[in-house]
Amino acid sequence: MTTVGAAESSVETVKSLVHEGVHHGVTLSVRYGRGRWWNIAIVVTTLILYSIAWPTLQLTHDVPAPLMPIISGLAVFPFLLVRAQPALGWAISAVAAMIVPWAFDRIPGYDYPWQVVHILVLLALLATVCLREEMRIVLVVWLATVLLFFAYVPGNDGWGWAIGITAIAAFALLVRWLVLSRRQLAREEEISELERARRAVLEEKARIARDLHDIVAHHMSLVVVQAQSAPYRLPDVSDEVRAEFESIGALAREALNEVRGMLGVLRSDGTLPEHAPQPGLGRLDELFDASRRAGVDLTARVEGDTASVSDSAGLAVYRILQESLANAARHAPGSEVSVQVVCGPDRVDVTVRNGAAEDDDGDRPAVQPDLGGGNGIRGMADRAASVGGRLYAHPRPDGGFEVSASLPRVPAA
To answer: Would you say 57 and 72 are in contact if contact means Cβ atoms under 8 Å apart?
Structure first.
């Protein structure tokens, strides 16, 4: 499996994770829609119960006509809290159940202290409390409801109601534990899915690291070995050629160290390892000297206070210059290259210009980097954007090429 294939496989893994995120978002939207319909159903049910309680109140209790809508509301309207605050709704309904028998006489022939609608609302709130509230609240509500029925229901019917109330509470608790166990199982399955996805990503990263090691690090190591051993293997090596080989070996070793650092990040399991210091503006002179040793006719100028530039912005500037100088050496060998870095009060401006390289006949400019292909210019643009900056790369009228970037000294959080 090649590096490109591994990268494509990683993209597929990321796509699957994004799909999972969209799926969770759709699930939340569906839950919100269901909650709205539940609220509508509760309001409609309350209105239906109220339309029953008001006309039938005169059949159960001797209540003056002006107070009938209020007493009926005390019996029914606590049901509106069945979803939001069931314990508060039960408390209001229980207080109303104690007030009504004390304040109003029952109609002869009606034995119960409350309307049937009031009893249904009280039991529904009791069941909801058992489904949703803490166990200490459930215990208090159950016990208080049993005592309420014992105190107000005549004769021996209180024992029957106590058994019925206990059965309702037990059934609600059973449903609650069943739902909680299913939710816990679903949560464990979700955690397992996330762990499997994380393991898949780590496996892909390890595979990419292995391929990079086999393809890039191996060849870079050979370049270092050949550059270091060439003066001893080849006869009559001059001092200039020996210095050139040493420069090639130093650049290859630096590139190999950076590749190894990247491989370490790919092979990590998400924890933060100890990193070597990243290059910044303090190492620009080393970068310029290495480019000159590689044969680049370079003129560089750095202005302003480089010490106060943040590490992230300094790293971005360093990488942009590194890639620009490499492109100039590769696409326009022998051309003059000028670099200007200006550290202003708020921003760091970088400009890299190179003239047009000529072919062997000296009569036409060499081909400049293609803006639409490759990853060099795109990578520099991403570097600039990562710290809140901008990068422009375009051919010059004289046939050369220019890269300019403007980055904030301290990127915003």
So the answer is: yes
For residue 176 the two structure tokens come to 């609650």
pLDDT at 351: 94
What is the structure's pLDDT at 367? 44
Q: What is the pLDDT of residue 413?
A: 54
The C-alpha atoms of residue 390 and residue 384 are separated, in whole angstroms, by 5
CA nearest to 306, candidates 270, 330, 282: 282
N-terminal to C-terminal alpha carbon distance within the chain: 39
Residue 387's contacts (CB-CB under 8 Å, 6 or more residues apart) are: 310, 312, 313, 316, 407, 408, 411
pTM (whole model) above 0.85: no
Cα–Cα distance for residue pair 335/325, rounded to 1 Å: 11
Beta bridge pairs of residue 343: 304, 348
Residue 214: its pLDDT value, please?
65
The length of the chain is 413
Cβ-proximal residues to 206 (8 Å cutoff; 6+ apart), any chain: 266, 267
What is the rounded distance in angstroms from the CA atom of residue 139 to the CA atom of residue 150?
17
Contact 297, 334 (CB under 8 A): yes
The sign of the dihedral angle between the CA atoms of 235, 240, 246, 247 is negative
Q: Are 365 and 356 in contact (CB under 8 A)?
A: yes
Q: At what angle do helices 86-103 and 116-132 cross, to 10 degrees?
A: 150
Strands (E), 192-332: 297-304
Residue 398: how many other CB atoms lie within 10 Å: 10
Cα separation of 226 and 249, whole Å?
A: 8
Residue written as token pair 């494509």 = 8
* Nearest partner of 350 among 293, 405, 273, 413, judged by Cα: 405
The pair of three-digit structure tokens given for residue 113, joined into one six-digit string: 């202290």
Q: Which residue shows structure tokens 């209540």?
A: 63
Q: Provide block-wise average pLDDT over 10 residues at a time, the chain (413 residues).
A: 42 48 49 76 90 86 88 89 90 90 84 87 92 91 90 80 91 91 85 83 78 70 76 80 82 76 66 60 88 84 89 90 85 86 92 74 48 64 88 88 91 66
**In this predicted structure, what is the pLDDT of residue 191?**
84
CB atoms within 10 A of CB 134: 10
How far apart CA 81 and CA 254 sit, in angstroms, is 69
